[in-house]
Amino acid sequence: MTTSDETTRSSAKAWLGVVAITASLFTFVTTELMPIGLLTPMGATLGVPTGTAALMVTLFGISAGLGVPFIVGWTRRADRRLLLSALLVVLAVGNLITAAVPNYPLLLATRLVMGFAHGVFWAIGVSMAMRIVEQRHASRAAAVVMSGMSIATVVGIPLGTFLEDLTSWQTTFYIWSGLSALVFLAVAALVPPLPSQGVVSVREVFGLPIKNVRLRAVMITVMLYVLGHFGVYTFIRPFVENNATNTAGYLTVALVVFGLGGAVGNVIAGHTVNKNLRVSFLVSCGGLLASMLLLLTISSSVVGLMAAVGLWGISFGAANLSQINMTLAAAPDAFEAAMAINTLQYNLSIALGAFFGGLVVDGLGLTSVVWFGVILTGASLLVALAWHRAPATSAGADQGVTATS
Length: 405
Hints:
Elements: H1 3-10, H2 12-37, H3 39-46, H4 50-53, H5 55-74, H6 80-100, H7 104-131, H8 138-166, H9 169-190, H10 202-211, H11 213-233, H12 236-241, H13 250-272, H14 277-298, H15 302-330, H16 335-364, H17 366-389
Helix pairs in contact: 2-5, 2-7, 2-8, 2-9, 5-7, 5-10, 5-16, 6-7, 6-9, 7-8, 7-16, 8-9, 8-13, 10-11, 10-16, 11-15, 11-16, 11-17, 13-15, 14-15, 14-17, 15-16, 16-17
């Protein structure tokens, strides 16, 4: 790399490109999770019970997970800026159709298509940001992009709930369609051309966890805590509304507290993953378990609810950044392939968490779904502890992400 190239990649425009990719993550995450904040009114309008309405999250996650290894493999020669731009077009059109949809089956079909775009973004987005800045700033760029998830929970999902209270859930999705279009323009203007790098065929993507023992262990660990988290988080609105002490007005506040906690957790993990990645994840996973137990014991009061949700957000934000570093450290020479596998299992876990959580809610009630989360998060912690004792099998397995592919 020439000195001129280094200067270009260090420029303010490079970091503006990172901001544009972060905005893309914000838009994708809010689109994926918006139905959680709008679950009750959307279910009522479309004539489906709460558990069935959660299929909006389930199908989105299924397509995001199952489709990504194929699409990443098939587009391995495509410029990543053009690919991201196409994904944002799918998102804008999908949100527009969601707002105007006349029935629930068509809404589910639309969400299914948008899920494919969402999954591909997760496979390429972080690596894009890490490539457009200097190599020594790659880890910082990854943390900046991941902050888009925290911003989505702090601003996006509560804002969607607020807009629905003022207008309707359809208006919320119209607004998000326009936002997707604006982010598309930002990516086109600010992200430089990025020819594909370090990508592999579909067969090699699926073969990676078979060959890589460390990556398999990470996948199991992440699958369990994501199942537990989204099994509970999908039903946070009815959980809050079901408590006589906490009126529906507390929902937006709880979502903001969760999102702020996520931002704090992301910042904390940004400093700790390079020092001790395994301990960072163990502590954050333990925090997830503790927060769900607090939901069961002290959430009847407003202060107790906010304390539990705040710890939940901090722990989830830290766990997310930790697990991405764990995934990439397990396969440092197959950057996008590792992220494709990560996206597959993460989004399938979101889908299955929402699905099984819905079955538990409809069959046993809202308290039982929190116990569902406790059990799975506890299992993730046990697997992580066992992995902590296992010998490393990949170079750099104990380090955070510090280099591009």
